[in-house]
Write a structure and sequence with these properties.
The protein contains 14 helices and eleven strands. Helix 2 links the parallel strand 2 and strand 3. The chain has two domains: 172 residues, D-Maltodextrin-Binding Protein, domain 2 (3-Layer(aba) Sandwich); 149 residues, D-Maltodextrin-Binding Protein, domain 2, CATH 3.40.190.10. By secondary structure, it is an alpha+beta fold. The structure holds fe (iii) ion.
């Protein structure tokens, strides 16, 4: 008997989720993935996985919050074997809510750098997203750029654009600064940023880039893959990447990652997928599809990504971003960063 429990549930829940299947052989023996990573970024990966291993993958995509809510309410009745989502802040929340389980894999521990996976093995980062300084070369001399902290300097008054503090990316950035610099110093810096804002915070990174391009501001902080997407459409776009904090802790990085769900039933196949994703070919595909950096070292980069050059990344475990997320949110609120 072939059942379609996911389709049924999705319709009931009225979610705006995409449901898909990689490979044939739909039935009870397929692996199920809940993914906050968008369909066009995962389908080619799952297709390749199915081709190589014979394991079919059923997936549904939605934002992280509804997917985690759904996992929680489904409890041990869930069909999900893997949760895939972006940002260590979200992955940490999945751990806090008891939605994942530890995976003991020598291969994963060896392939994925220490700071890019949960210390208990409840999730692993598969691609690295660098959140860095972007500037317009006509209006900014990169010699005046230095650190994230430096964006609080007087010289950037009314020249800085940022995304809203409501989104997890900046919460993670600020959380990592708190871990590195302490709460007091971080609050001082965030207050400085707010003073320097050229406009109200934007709802997304692309809007920040467009504002810099349009001259509303001169400098901002975004994930590099958003710039990559704009460059894919317009290679002549005049926006440059600056790698801050190269003399100290390095560039703030986050991950897109995955873990085995607490109530996974196909644990063997789930482990096969988690390990397969750390292979060289899968890594290259996983990162390149979204113009990110592979988690595994030595894997080739997309040419657009490669042009930005090498940088030192902060190697503090990204799970710290999750641990300090709530405090970071309160700090930004106190500092007037909306
Ligand atoms: Fe994003």
């Amino acid at each position: 008997m072939v059942r379609h429990p996911l389709l049924g549930l999705t319709a009931l829940a009225g979610l705006a989720a995409a449901v898909g299947l990689a490979g044939c052989g739909a039935g009870d023996d397929e692996l199920t993935v809940y993914s906050a990573r968008q369909e066009h970024l995962i389908k080619p990966i799952f297709d390749r996985f199915t081709e190589e291993t014979g394991i079919a993958v059923r997936y549904i995509t939605d934002s992280a919050a509804p997917l985690m809510e759904r996992l929680k309410s489904e409890g041990d009745r869930t069909r999900a074997d893997i949760l895939m989502t972006v940002d260590a802040g979200n992955l940490h929340q999945a751990v806090e809510n008891g939605l994942l389980q530890s995976v003991d894999s020598g291969l994963l521990r060896q392939r994925i750098p220490e700071h890019l996976h949960d210390p208990e093995g409840q999730w692993f980062g598969y691609s690295v997203r660098a959140r860095t300084i972007i500037y317009h070369p006509d209006r900014v001399d990169p010699a005046n750029l230095d650190t994230y902290e430096g964006l609080a300097d007087q010289q950037w008054r009314y020249r800085l654009c940022m995304r809203t503090s409501q989104k997890v990316y900046n919460q993670s950035l600020v959380a990592m600064m708190m871990a590195r610099l302490g709460e007091e110093r971080t609050e001082e810096i965030v207050r400085g940023w707010v003073t320097n804002f050229a406009t109200d915070p934007f709802s997304n990174d692309t809007a920040v880039l467009n504002a810099i391009q349009a001259g509303q501001c001169d400098v901002g902080v975004t994930n590099t893959y958003y710039l990559g997407r704009l460059l894919r459409d317009d290679p002549d776009l005049l926006l440059e990447v600056f790698w801050p904090n190269q003399e100290d802790r390095g560039v703030h990085v986050n991950v897109s990652g995955a873990g085995m769900t607490r109530h996974a039933t196909r644990t063997e196949e789930a482990l096969t997928l988690l390990e397969w994703l750390a292979g060289d070919d899968a890594q290259e595909m996983f990162a390149a599809l979204n113009l990110e950096y592979p988690a595994v070292e030595g894997v080739p980069l997309d040419p657009i990504v490669e042009q930005w050059g090498e940088f030192n990344a902060d190697t503090l475990n990204v799970s710290e971003a999750g641990r300090l997320q709530r405090q970071a949110t309160m700090l930004m609120d106190r500092a007037g960063y909306r």
